[in-house]
Structure formats: structure tokens, C-alpha cells
Design a protein that fits this description.
Bifunctional NAD(P)H-hydrate repair enzyme; Ribokinase-like; binds potassium ion; 471 residues; CARKD; binds ligand NPW; Rossmann fold; 19 helices; single chain; EC 5.1.99.6; binds adenosine-5'-diphosphate; seven-stranded parallel beta sheet; eleven-stranded mixed beta sheet; lyase
Length: 471
Amino acid sequence: MRTAYSVETVRAAERELMARLPEGALMARAAAGLAAVCAELLARGRGRVYGARVVLLVGPGDNGGDALYAGARLARRGAGVTAVPMDPERMHPGGLAALRAAGGRVAASVPGRADLVVDGLLGIGGRGGLRPAAAALVERIPAGAAVVAVDLPSGVDADTGEVAGPAVTADVTVTFGAYKPGLLTDPGASRVGAVRLVDIGLDLDGAAVALEAPQHADVAALLPVPTASSDKYRRGVVGVVAGSEQYPGAAVLAVAGALRGGAGAVRYVGPAADAVLARFPEVLVGRGRVQAWVVGPGLGSGREAEVGRALADTDVPVLVDADGLRGLDAGVVRGRRAATLLTPHAGEAAALLGVARETVEAGRLAAVRELAGRYGAAVLLKGSTTLVAPGGGGAVRVNPTGTPWLATAGSGDVLSGLAGALLAAGLGGVDAGSAAAYLHGLAGRFAAGGAPVVAQEVAAALPRAWRSVRD
Ligand SMILES: NC(=O)C1=CN([C@@H]2O[C@H](COP(=O)(O)OP(=O)(O)OC[C@H]3O[C@@H](n4cnc5c(N)ncnc54)[C@H](OP(=O)(O)O)[C@@H]3O)[C@@H](O)[C@H]2O)[C@@H](O)CC1
Ligand SMILES: Nc1ncnc2c1ncn2[C@@H]1O[C@H](COP(=O)(O)OP(=O)(O)O)[C@@H](O)[C@H]1O
Ligand SMILES: [K+]
């Protein structure tokens, strides 16, 4: 897992470490790591550091201090370094002295040309949108300059990834000690570029993880693999309640996801049986025993009773998606014994929360936590960075795979079936949701390969995604 910690947790670890080290040691480590990444970028872009034009945007706190000390290192290697303060009265004094001693200069405005801009305006001490003085500097970043953000791009909230107003968009973010949730969650995640983690010696063992991004090995460890003693029932039968006369395709796609998700068998319940069987003759039709239900894709309206019937089976895991989420009763969900996984997109999440879709999109982490808390169930919030929150609080998972090409009709139906198969195999709600999102995102990338993709192709690419994770 790639783990991210809240600002509060990072600050506590920093305090503990600082108490044991000489003053300034942590900032020196941070600045050394930052300068090394800057030098690497300059060497790659123009062959050498000597003679490069480097601009430091310097905020009033320690984030600015990091930038100044790193700038001093680059100046000692022959770069022309100009520091532009947000407030000339408030610059890290030690950092400023170091930069001046190394031959760097201070200017009141951002030079028109630069090879590299170092964003040291705000780090984990930034609150709310950028104030006008900071926003004015960000607007003046010269076109064509590589942008390195110090700790995080200024204007991105470190704990939530929220971006209120203008913010820096970086090519590389050099973050210190630990990932912050805002670097991995949109809209912030879209601003960070490549993230480089600099070890400054923080000890976060045992600290509460705020957000975690599974990697190949984590997902491989979750995926069920049949053994000599397996039979189709032990592998898990998935019941799919999906599709309608108007939307028969949703049933076909959810079934495709379930079959490709390793279900021993899929049982289809609904009015689209002909369409399902035409595509997948291996499907069983009609009610019977299942190890998990997937309810909702393409149901249309007026089918609440079928959703209620699945949820009433409190010992069987249930995934509720799409139309099934309409009017979902929190009391019923909370009362269930087996896993429940809700898989809304931003619009569906907004309807459940009674807020505007934009509110969910701007604060995805808060929205998914709030929903999971209200329903006491795992919630997978789809979108550019898919998040999966546990019902009982704790670390939220963020999916690191995926591609915007997945924003195509029916791809969510495939995801539902896939996650349902993993629930049927015995995974809990968060594990099933995050493993499914991971495979689905990989399959989307494989199927798209930089060109438009349709949902059936995502389902067809799932075996390749599965193999690549297990390799
Ligand atoms: N601690 C450590 O051990 C280490 C920390 N390290 C580094 O320190 C960074 C944290 O430094 P920090 O705490 O000084 O906060 P920082 O992010 O520089 O900003 C605070 C200043 O900004 C201001 N301000 C706030 N919001 C604003 C806004 N929206 N728009 C404009 N201004 C705003 C606020 O001003 P005020 O509200 O007081 O007017 C305050 O003065 C961390 O990210 C990392 O880079 C590394 O060296 C490794 C060791
Ligand atoms: N911008 C995006 N970047 C990456 N993935 C996206 C983006 N937008 C949507 N997706 C993914 O595409 C799928 C769309 O699902 P959904 O909205 O339910 O569509 P449908 O109901 O048509 O199947 C989800 O897996 C979602 O995470
Ligand atoms: K910054």
C-alpha cells in the first residue's frame, strides 16, 4: 500500500523527530532532497544546472524556507536563482541568508523567463484558497518553465485534495516524510504531476493512515484463485438484478463483469434474460441461492421492491449501484449483517447526500466518508480518482489505476458485476470495491491504449488485467 497521513499526524511525527535533532536538520534534509530533484530536472531538460534560470516563489512559512535553502544549493552549482516573495517582510530568515550567501537574489516580481519554477508558497500550513498576493505570483509563472511544487502544489488542501480557486499545477511534486491525502485525491491529484517522496526520517509506524493506494501486490493478495477443492458454488455465485426493457445492456454488462470477476456462476434475475443469454449462454436465469447480489444497474424506476428484497437477505453481501441507490433506506442498510457496498458516481452520491453534484466533485473525500458513515456501509465513489471508504471509519482507499477513457456508458455496470464477484468470493466490501476498481482501471487502460473504448471491451480486457496483477 502507498499510505498517506493527515497533516496532524505528519506534524506530530515531525515534532517528535525535531526534538531529537539539531535545529534546522529536518529542513536541511528536505531542501537537499528538493534541490536534488530540481537538479535532475534541469540536467534532463537542458543538460546542466550551471547557467539555468531558477525562480523561487517564496511563501511566509517553512515551505518558503525549503525553497530558499534548495535555491541556495542550486545557486552554488551555478544556477541563476531569483526568489520572489509573497510578502517581502515574511521570508524564512535562515533560508534567505543562505540564498544570498550563495549569490541568489530577491526580486519583487516574477521574471518573464525561467527554466524552472519552485513553488514554495504554501505547504501543509496552507488554509483555504490562495490569498491574492499568492494567486498573483502563480498567475505569472512563465510558460515553458518546469514547475516543481514543494511538499504540495500551493492552493491544494493537503488533507482533502480540495482546490478553492487558483492553484499551482506542477510537473513534479517533492513531498517530505509521507504522502498527504490531497496528493492522491482529485481535484488536487490532477495538479501534482509526478510525486517524489523524500525521506526525512519521520517514523509513522503505527500512526493512523488517512488514505491508502493499493499496489499490484496488495491486489494480487486479495484476488481469489480456484484450488483443487474448488467447485462453482465455493467460488461464489453472483446474483445480478439489473436491466430493464429500456436498458437491457446494463444487465449484459454487469453479467460480463461478474463472469470476468471469477464468479463460479452468475444468476440473472430481471426482464433482460434474452439479451443476457444471447451474449452469455453460461448464465443461470431466475432466483436461487447466491453468495452475493448485485442490484441496480439499468433497473429504471419503480423497482425499489427488488432492491429491498436483496437487502433484506441480511446474511448475503449486496452491492447496490445506479438506480438501486435511489431512495436507499439508511436504516435498512445499517441493520444488515453481511457486507454492503454502495457504488455511486458523483451525481448519485450528491442525490443521496442532498447536495449539488459539484459539491461532491469538489470534496470527494469528505463526501465518501460522509456517505459511508451515514449508511454504515462500504462506499465506492466512482470518478477520476475512485475512492472506497469503510462503513466503520478508518483509512479510505484510493484507486491508482484507471483512465478518463473509462467515462463511457456502461463501464460502471461492468465494475458492479466485477465487485459483486469478489464479494461472492468472500472479500469484504472495501477489499472487493478497491480490488475491482484496480482491475477495472487497468482493463480500461489496456482496452483503450490511448483511443476510445467501449464498456464491453473493458470487460473483455479484465483477464489481461487480472494476469498482469498476479504476474
Ligand atoms: N515541520 C517540519 O518539521 C518540516 C516542515 N517542512 C516544510 O514546512 C512546511 C510547513 O511549514 P509551515 O507550517 O510554516 O506552513 P506553510 O505551509 O509554509 O504556510 C504557512 C504560512 O502561510 C500562510 N498562509 C496560510 N494559508 C494561506 C493562504 N491560503 N494564502 C496565503 N498564505 C497563507 C500563513 O500565514 P498567516 O495565516 O499566518 O498569515 C503561514 O505563515 C511543510 O509543508 C514543508 O514544506 C520541511 O522543511 C520538513 C520539516
Ligand atoms: N474522468 C474519469 N477518469 C477516470 N475514470 C472515470 C472518469 N469518469 C468516470 N470514470 C470511471 O468510469 C466508470 C463510469 O461509471 P458510471 O458513471 O457508473 O457509468 P455508467 O453508469 O454509464 O456505467 C466508473 O468506473 C468511473 O470511475
Ligand atoms: K508548495
